[in-house]
Design a protein that fits this description.
The protein is 59% helix and 8% strand. The chain is α+β, with helices and mostly antiparallel strands and 220 residues long. Helix 1 packs across helix 6 (153-159), helix 4 (90-116) runs antiparallel to helix 5 (119-140) and helix 4 runs parallel beside helix 6.
Amino acid sequence: MAEEVSLLDFWPSPFGMRVRIALNLKGIKYEYKEENLIERKSPLLVESNPVYKKVPVLIHEGRPICESLVILQYIDVVWKDRFPLIPTDLYHQAQARFWADFVEKKLYDCEKKIWMNKGEEQEKAKVEFVESLKLLEEQLGEKPYFGGETIGYLDVTLVAHYSWFYAYEKYGNFSITAECPRLVQSAKKCMKIDSVGKSLADEEKIYELVMAVKKKMDLE
């Protein structure tokens, strides 16, 4: 009997993209359930994630798992025989988790400030964002992926943000490729993997969404 796996998600969410990538890399069949977070959160989402009421939520055999990094770790343990993401070496495992947490805590806050603000606040956010990316680029080194010769946990965590880079560049008037060429090259290499590329949202559509949200929030 096939396992019951479903994902509550919102198409532009980088956090949801992480989970989609992991599921697709491991070849896990799942039911995708789109949430319209701009209009109204579904009763299923509120019931499945009563604490934060946010996507993504993975529902496996009727049991919800919340928060994208927690979900990635859950997926990697439950389906450990398929395309392992987290290193088996404890030191490398700790490093991957540390930097994934860094992405979680540092990038999103800066990213949001770039497209929501102007002037001094935006410039400050851009500087902090680029500094954070450069730290990640140092960790990447000369490797094709953070995971080494194959895509791993940190790659999945970070590449999900790439779909939003175009919008940040447009609103922030800067080039991420010029600032962090090796990091962008690695992200593009990840995106050539079919399971990754098909899991990511179109950057132009995200830019259009950001424009619409800014207009609705009177941030133009």
